[in-house]
Design brief:
121 residues, mainly beta, four-stranded mixed β-sheet, three-stranded mixed β-sheet, 13% helix, globular
């Protein structure tokens, strides 16, 4: 007697990227500026003490190697080569008396350099 095993159910993957309310609010303001580019592209570059750093650029249209991420009614692009480093990442926007900018909470990070500019997975 032979039995067929039931196929394993695949588990849902986390979203490639999510935006906090603050990041979404800031992106809306940036996208609404006169002459602004249509999209923010996020990639990962090799640099810094820990090996990798986030890189952002504004572009007019998605490129052939871009993953399109939509969250909170906004679209950001993720370079396909960076997607394996960014799965499950949350992008936030912080502002204080000395600095302001987008920050990333990345569950794939194993460590950061002392200055916080680069990371490794």
């Amino acid at each position: 007697m032979s039995t067929l095993a039931e196929p394993k159910k695949s588990r849902a993957l986390p979203p490639l990227m999510a935006l906090t309310d603050r990041a979404a609010e800031r992106l809306r303001a940036l996208y609404a500026q006169p002459g602004a580019k249509a999209y923010l592209r996020i990639s990962v570059r090799t640099r810094g003490c820990s090996g990798l750093s986030y890189d952002m650029a504004y572009v007019d249209e998605p490129g052939p190697g871009d993953e399109v991420v939509t969250d909170q009614g906004l679209t950001v692009l993720v370079d396909r080569k960076a997607s394996m480093f960014l799965i499950g990442t949350t992008m936030d926007y912080t502002s204080d008396a000395l600095t302001s900018g987008f920050t990333f909470t990345n569950p794939n990070e194993k460590g950061r350099c002392g200055c916080g500019e680069s990371f490794h997975v």
